[in-house]
Amino acid sequence: MKKHLPYILAVLLTGGIIALVLTGNNKNEKKLDERITLRRQDKIPYGTFVAYKGLEHLFPGASVRVNRDEPGYWDSLSSDQTNQALIIITGKFNADETEMKNLVNFMEKGNDVFVSARTLSYSAGEFLDCKVNTSAISSYYEDNRVVADSLDLVLTDPPFEKKMRYVYPGKRMDASFSKIDEATTEVLGEDAAGQPNFIRLRAGKGNLYVHLAPLAFSNYFLLHKENLTYYEKAISVINPKTTRIAWDEYYLSKKLLDEPNEKKKGWFSVLSRYPGLKAALLTAIFTLLLYVLLEMRRKQRYIPVVAKPRNDSLDFVRTIGRLYFDKGDHKNLARKMSAYFLEHVRSQYKLPTGLLDDEFVRKLQHKSGVEEAEIRGIVSFILYIDDAPGINHKQLADFHKQLEAFYKKA
Question: How much is the pTM?
Answer without folding.
Answer: 0.57
